[in-house]
């Protein structure tokens, strides 16, 4: 656990912090139901404060009365309890900030490689920060048995891998992400990955530091960069743990670096989120708090703020990471935060990705009919035969044009009078603009007809009516002919336009087919080139790995020879030191013997001297006793 101390049982460790231990913690409320759900025998101590439940019953997630964590949820004190118990921030190890900084430093070639892998949506993490308190609170709202997020207002949102695709923009292919090596080639490849990224222990996973160095290094081997980036994305964002190492079970995912878009990363991430939340729940519900949580918690945060009861933020943007800037997330957090408590103030709405948001405006701009559609509609309307009705002796067409009747009453009189004619009585009946009859006796006064018209007789009137009728019929015939010709012309234009459009569509379809075939050929060629390149890269990697192995063996052999040489020199040095020590001992022994002999010689000389002095003394005494003697005698003596 980052920032913590030594890891204890259950994956939790480090300094526990908090207040004095006089307060009872780490135990579920002592009632009958609670004892059946979580008993003391199922609790194991982790460190000095935190306790972990070996198993959580499904009812604990829903019934807040059954656990200490449930009480905190019901009282809205989840975040406050965490602050009271922990002196340092919670360990929510979805490393949004660090990963965003790494992505921001990518060159154009690296960005293109990430885009080809299908992970370009993760660039939305640049300049983003993880809302840790919100994520901590959301983890407590996850119901693992039902695979759902339960909000304080009672709404439930079932998790689905599609939501991961919408939020993160990662691939959701048809193949499951590899979880183990199924053949010797895969095993050899994973062994090379382990050797490349210098792990000290296979069970300990890969160090994040080595992956970061490989990703940030200058681009040389494209496939090696793909593997390193994929594993780093798993460590930091997709499947993070509470440590800074890649989980060993995720190492086989490196096999998918050949074609990441074909694999279902969304299901893998969701599975790891549920696993991490389950581990979190085993610590949170017995104690009322937890020191940290793994998993992709940024997914929970974005999914929650997208469903708050407030106007949506750029609802059509994909992935959702790009829509939610740090400013927008802070606004949503501030609006949803209960003063002095947890989140959940606004409530949520039932929104689904890919469909209109219930809080979004549903108005649309009016649709405009194209000019071509308007022309076709006009031609079709003109081609339709117009029906006519006879109303009070006058022909009224559907277009409102009044026509002269063929027989019956005229405009101004009876059927035996034409326009401007009069009867013998000199009275003429006409209609005003409103259709009322007007009786005119004084033609001159009214100015409606002149005196020459009065002089016309019936024969002239009949001849004029016949001419007018013939002219009218001719005009009608010509009008009908013109209408027929116009109709034929319009029909011909419509047919020609339709034929032209049909031909254009056929040409466009033919062109599309050719483009599609060309693209398929190009894709096939690219795939073949890619496969050939990957095969060459595999062979090169194999040769490189063999060379590295040979170099390693050579280095080990050289090191072994050096060790043997050093050991031999050490032995010789020890033997020389032992020889010198023996010689020194012998020399000291000789000196000691010589010293003893010299001492014996000195002692002997001392004894001889004493004996000589004694003899001289005795002689002197003898001379005194014998008296004086001659010099010759004395000399002889």
How would you explain this protein's 3D organization?
By secondary structure, the chain is mostly helical. It folds into 3 domains: 307 residues, no CATH class; 124 residues, no CATH class; 74 residues. Helices cover 54% and strands 6% of the residues. It contains 20 helices and 14 strands. The protein has a 3-stranded antiparallel sheet with strand order 4-5-6. A 3-stranded antiparallel sheet has the order 10-11-12, with no helix packed on it. β1 and β2 form a beta hairpin. α16 runs antiparallel to α19. 25% of the residues are buried. The N terminus is likely disordered.
Give the overall shape: elongated
Please tell me the total number of domains. 3
What is the topology, as strand order, of the major beta sheet? 4-5-6
Helix content: 40-55%
Number of helices: 20
**Euclidean distance between termini CA atoms:** 111 Å
Strand composition percent:
5-15%
Largest sheet, strands/sense/barrel: 3 strands, antiparallel
Structural class: mainly alpha
**Rg (CA only):** 55 Å
Q: What is the mean pLDDT?
A: 78
* Low-pLDDT segments: 1-49, 384-456
Question: Can you count the beta strands?
Answer: 14
Region (Disordered): 1-28, 471-556, 568-637
Biased composition (Gly residues): 1-20
Biased composition (Basic and acidic residues): 568-624
């Amino acid at each position: 656990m980052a920032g913590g101390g030594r890891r204890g049982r259950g994956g939790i460790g480090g300094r526990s912090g908090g207040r004095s231990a006089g307060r009872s913690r780490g135990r579920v409320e002592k009632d009958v139901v609670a004892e059946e759900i979580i008993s003391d025998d199922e609790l194991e101590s982790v460190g000095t404060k935190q306790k972990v439940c070996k198993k959580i019953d499904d009812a604990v997630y829903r019934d807040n009365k059954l656990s200490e964590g449930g009480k905190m949820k019901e009282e809205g004190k989840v975040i406050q309890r965490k602050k009271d118990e922990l002196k340092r921030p919670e360990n929510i190890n979805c490393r949004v900030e660090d990963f965003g900084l790494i992505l921001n430093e990518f060159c154009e070639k690296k960005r293109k490689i990430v885009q080809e892998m299908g992970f370009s949506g993760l660039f939305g993490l640049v300049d983003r920060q993880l809302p840790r308190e919100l994520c901590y609170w959301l983890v407590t709202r996850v119901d693992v048995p039902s695979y759902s997020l339960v909000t304080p207002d009672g709404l439930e949102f079932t998790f689905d891998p599609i939501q991961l695709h919408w939020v993160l923009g990662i691939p959701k292919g048809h193949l499951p992400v590899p979880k183990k090596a199924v053949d010797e080639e895969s095993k050899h490849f994973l062994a090379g990955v382990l050797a490349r990224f210098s792990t000290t222990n296979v069970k300990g996973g890969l160090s994040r530091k080595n992956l970061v160095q490989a990703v940030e290094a200058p681009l040389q081997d494209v496939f090696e960069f793909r593997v390193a980036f994929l594993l780093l994305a798993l460590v930091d964002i997709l499947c993070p743990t509470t440590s800074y190492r890649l989980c060993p079970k995720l190492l086989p995912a490196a096999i998918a670096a050949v074609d990441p878009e074909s694999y279902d990363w969304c299901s893998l991430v969701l599975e790891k989120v549920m696993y991490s939340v389950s581990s979190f729940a085993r610590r949170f519900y017995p104690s009322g708090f937890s020191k940290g949580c793994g998993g992709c918690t940024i997914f929970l945060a974005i999914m929650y703020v997208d469903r708050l009861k407030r106007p949506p933020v750029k609802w059509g943007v994909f992935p959702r990471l790009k829509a939610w800037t740090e400013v927008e997330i802070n606004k949503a957090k501030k609006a949803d935060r209960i003063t002095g408590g947890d989140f959940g103030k606004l409530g949520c709405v039932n929104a689904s990705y890919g469909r209109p948001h219930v809080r979004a405006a549903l108005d649309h701009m009016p649709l405009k009919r194209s000019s071509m559609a308007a022309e076709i509609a006009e031609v079709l309307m003109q081609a339709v035969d117009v029906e006519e009705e006879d109303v009070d002796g006058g022909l009224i067409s559907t277009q409102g044009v009044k026509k002269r009747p063929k027989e019956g009453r005229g405009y101004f009189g009876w059927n035996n009078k034409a326009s401007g004619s009069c009867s013998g009585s000199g009275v003429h009946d006409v209609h005003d603009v409103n259709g009322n009859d007007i009786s005119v006796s004084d033609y001159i006064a009214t100015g409606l007809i002149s005196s020459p018209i009065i002089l016309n007789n019936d024969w002239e009137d009949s001849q004029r009516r016949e001419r007018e009728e013939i002219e009218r019929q001719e005009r009608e015939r010509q009008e009908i002919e013109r209408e027929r010709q116009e109709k034929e012309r319009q029909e011909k234009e419509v047919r020609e336009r339709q034929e032209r459009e049909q031909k254009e569509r056929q040409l466009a379809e033919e062109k599309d087919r050719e483009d599609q075939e060309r693209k398929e050929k190009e894709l096939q060629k690219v795939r073949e080139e890619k496969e050939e390149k990957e095969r060459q890269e595999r062979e090169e990697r194999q040769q490189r790995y063999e060379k590295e192995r040979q170099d390693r063996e050579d280095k080990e052999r050289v090191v072994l020879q050096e060790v043997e040489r050093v050991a031999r020199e050490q032995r010789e040095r020890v033997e020389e030191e032992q020889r010198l020590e023996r010689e020194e001992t012998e020399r000291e022994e000789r000196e000691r013997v010589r010293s003893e002999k010299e001492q014996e010689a000195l002692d002997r000389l001392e004894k001889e001297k004493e004996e000589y002095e004694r003899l001289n003394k005795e002689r002197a005494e003898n001379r005194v006793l014998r008296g004086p003697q001659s010099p010759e005698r004395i000399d002889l003596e």
